[in-house]
Automatic annotation (TrEMBL):
PROSITE patterns: ABC_TM1. PANTHER family: INNER MEMBRANE ABC TRANSPORTER PERMEASE PROTEIN YDCU-RELATED, INNER MEMBRANE ABC TRANSPORTER PERMEASE PROTEIN YDCU-RELATED-RELATED. It is found in: Cell membrane. The chain crosses the membrane at residues 12-30, 50-67, 74-93, 113-134, 146-175, 195-217, 224-244, 256-278. GO terms for cellular component: plasma membrane. The keyword Membrane applies. It is a multi-pass membrane protein. Keywords: Cell membrane, Membrane, Transmembrane, Transmembrane helix, Transport. Belongs to the binding-protein-dependent transport system permease family. CysTW subfamily. One of its GO terms (biological process) is transmembrane transport. This is Acriflavin resistance protein. It comes from the Bacteria. The keyword Transmembrane helix applies. It comes from Pararhizobium antarcticum.
Length: 287
């Protein structure tokens, strides 16, 4: 008579169980509800009218503004963050700067929402500390110069507070992966510094840079609390339009709100998939 063996879950999987439950309850299930709701009518029947509603001029304009803000903050965050990381890793700055910088970047990359909006309003708002100082002490009126925190560039500047640190955290390991032997070999072959960066370093780092750009884009596109707390309804972007739909202030069809969220999921999903694919390609060189 064959002996029955009882299959048990390995104990080392128990540590992952709380995370799996958390992800299922607060990520997978809400996402599935949004996806299903985007293709349903209020009575539960299937329809494509909610998806068609995304192509109305006002909603398309909101998506376009959100894409431009996300792309602008991602590009600026990549450029500035790369410069900061390169200065620390390759620029010969004292090593004691690296630890505090990475620690601050870890904190600042997660600093968003109402606290971040309040910090920028208190600094660069209409009666912010820096705004008042420039006007009273230096005679520079930011309003007359065309700057408004509650605008496209104002929100982009606010997003840079967490975009730059996130870029620093991601690109620093990639810069650490550049082997000294590659530079020495290029110098032996007669390559100058700019030639080394153009022909060796940047081609190796390019997948990491492009992947990080995609991740920063997704990070900004999905930022909801900061945009709402900072601009309210003065800027027509998708997160604010979605927030208004949830509150029931503007749109009367909740399933159109599901479609708005579904469109955000698709866009951020494409950006994150691109980041994962490009990161995997870059790690082949940096191992």
């Amino acid at each position: 008579m064959p002996v029955r063996t009882r299959r048990t879950l390995p104990l080392n999987w128990l540590g992952v169980l709380p995370f799996a439950i958390f992800v299922t309850l607060f990520l997978i299930m809400p996402t599935m509800k949004i996806v299903v709701g985007a293709f349903q009518t209020p009575d539960g029947s299937l329809t494509l009218d909610n998806i068609r509603g995304l192509f109305t001029p006002s909603i398309m304009a909101a998506y376009w503004i959100s894409i431009k803000i996300s792309l602008a903050s991602a590009i600026l965050g990549c450029i500035i963050g790369f410069g900061v990381s390169a200065a620390v890793v390759l620029g010969g700055l004292p090593q004691w700067i690296r630890g505090p910088l990475l620690t601050f970047s870890g904190v600042a990359s997660n600093f968003a929402g109402v606290p971040l909006a309040f910090a920028f309003l208190a600094t660069l708002g209409p009666v912010g500390i820096l705004t008042v100082f420039l006007k009273t002490q230096l005679g520079l009126d930011l309003r007359l110069l065309g700057f408004n925190l509650l605008s496209f560039w104002g929100l982009t500047l606010t997003y840079l507070f967490f975009q730059i640190p996130l870029m620093v955290l991601i690109i620093t390991p990639a810069l650490d992966g550049l082997k000294r032997e590659w530079r020495e070999a290029a110098e032996i072959l007669g390559a100058s510094g700019p030639q080394y960066w153009r022909m060796v370093a940047f081609p190796i780092l390019f997948p990491s840079l492009l992947g990080t750009l995609a991740l920063l884009f997704a990070n900004a596109f999905g930022a909801v609390a900061t945009a709402i707390a900072l601009t309210g309804s003065s800027l027509n972007i998708v997160p604010i339009l979605l927030f208004a739909q949830i509150r029931g202030d503007v749109l009367g069809d909740p399933h159109l709100g599901y479609a708005l969220a579904f469109g955000m999921i698709v866009i951020t999903g494409i950006a994150n998939t691109l980041y994962i694919w490009l990161r995997a390609r870059s790690e082949r060189w940096l191992k």
